[in-house]
Amino acid sequence: MRAPLALPSGAELARAGRAVPSNGARRPRAAARLGTLRFPWVLGMLVLHVVLGGVFKQSGTIATAHALGTLLVGLYWAVRGRPMFQLACWSMYAAGAEVLWRMTGANLIWEYGKYAVSLVLFIRVFRGGLRAIYWTPVIYFFLLMPAVVPTLLGYYSPQGFEDTRKLLSFNLSGPLSLMVCSLFFARVGLTGLRTQRLLTWMVIPIGGIAGAILLGLTSLEHLEFGRGSSLIASGGFGPNQVSAVLGIGAFFATLLALEPRLDARLRALFLGVALWFAAHAALSFSRTGIYLFGAGLAVALPFSSIRNLLRLQTLLVVAVAIAAGLVTWAFLMRYTEGMIGERFSSTSLTRRDLIARQDLALWEQHFILGAGVGGSSIAHTEGTGGRIGAHTEYTRLLAEHGLLGAMATLLLLAMAARPLFTMPLGFTKGALVGACGMTLLWMAASAMRNAAPGLLIGLAAARICRPRRQVRRRPVQTTARAPLASRRLPLARSQTGGE
């Protein structure tokens, strides 16, 4: 009597080209991973972080716990080797929450956001192996290392070791985060759906910033505006940084609102969020955020899918956005008694031109090797009332690093331009090109004071990949004379004599 025909395992069926039977247990989880964003989840997360923004404003201890908890989650995922895309979403969230932690008084070191993102992503890159390395950001960072020598020798640290540490940390933590983020994202593949999730994970914590500011404004009976930036309308923190992050959030939310593949309710939600963020960015009286928002859209839209942008639904969204924007501007004009119009019509560079000229003058004196890390801050002392860090990253690189800084600048621009040559037209290319263009403008106005610039330039290193198509599974035939033998699948040991 012949032994019964043994069924092959799933791995054997896969090697033979057959579909592997499934009991359906994993299908819902896979669908959740690969599906589009869901309205209840996005709305719930935004509301939660708006509330958290108000809570953090009342208690810096809770804000500190949230920041440390975010870092611990990232470290746990990195050490355990969780998927790269999961860590990518975490990094977008941490960079978006950095200003929220600062403005609510979290007890953290000043460069916490940049170091947290760099540490977590470096651990994940190291755990994945260093066999394939994207060398451009590595060369960029090491071109900046010779300028560390004069700083360590005490040329620009009259107050000793602590001053030296601050100079190095303030000026090199940004380039460090850019290098690590580029190495990480070079191993991340993006699709349109993944890009939507990445943008959403940065928009969510920025909602906490807007919530904290709104809570402060509603508690005031009257607020007077002048011709300069408003600290009160920025939540009590630096208007320049708050406005810049809000501008990024408005840009990402607008791109999501223009995406026709999203649910209509989600598009309406993101459109409202974009208007809210843009209104707060303008109300801070810091022009950076609105300029970044406009520059990002101007760069991103030509590289997006023109077919999607010309759809009737998208054109209606654009019309509604323009109308709502005009109404919002009219309200802000009335709320500020016309001062906001005067502020945004001003062409003053608020001494940034003076600081940039001092950087260039310092470069002339130290043309080859530069003045050393921190030398730019010393040069800004005269005429600015004290030591002031560089606002323009490009002139700082020239002043402190000389010709090596000029080479590093060219590599920086090459990394930012990478999506132009490696990605086809579509949502992902538009988002990455717009983010890089916006970041390059940010670095011209505020250098690399936050984690977002290094992260967004690093995001340009990601590669495009096509989403996996789900294969319809068919039941395996188990009847007599099944075509298993004809496909030369291995049989049970009882049939082959235990060979």
The Rg value, from CA coordinates, equals: 26 Å
Distance between the termini: 19 Å
Please mark out the parts with pLDDT under 50 across 5 or more consecutive residues, or reply none.
Answer: 1-34, 478-499
Query: What fraction of the residues are assigned to beta strands by DSSP?
Result: under 5%
What series of H and E elements makes up the topology?
A: HHHHHHHHHEHHHHHHHHHHHHHEH
Number of strands: 2
Helix/strand structural class: mainly alpha
- What is the molecular shape? globular
**Number of helical segments with 4 or more residues:** 23
What average pLDDT do the residues reach? 83
Q: Main sheet, how many strands, which sense, barrel?
A: 2 strands, parallel
Helix content: 55-70%
The strands making up the biggest β-sheet line up spatially as 1-2
Would you mind describing this structure in some detail?
This protein is mostly helical and 499 residues long. The protein contains 23 helices and two strands. The protein has helices spanning 10-15, 27-34, 39-58, 60-79, 84-103, 112-127, 135-142, 148-152, 161-185, 192-218, 239-257, 264-283, 288-300, 306-309, 312-335, 339-345, 352-365, 375-379, 393-416, 418-422, 427-446, 451-459, 493-496; strands at residues 189-190, 463-464. A two-stranded parallel ribbon has the order 1-2. Helix 13 (288-300) packs antiparallel against helix 21 (427-446).
Summarize the structure.
The chain is mainly α and 499 residues long. It has helices spanning 10-15, 27-34, 39-58, 60-79, 84-103, 112-127, 135-142, 148-152, 161-185, 192-218, 239-257, 264-283, 288-300, 306-309, 312-335, 339-345, 352-365, 375-379, 393-416, 418-422, 427-446, 451-459, 493-496; strands at 189-190, 463-464. The model is unreliable at 1-34 and 478-499 (pLDDT under 50).
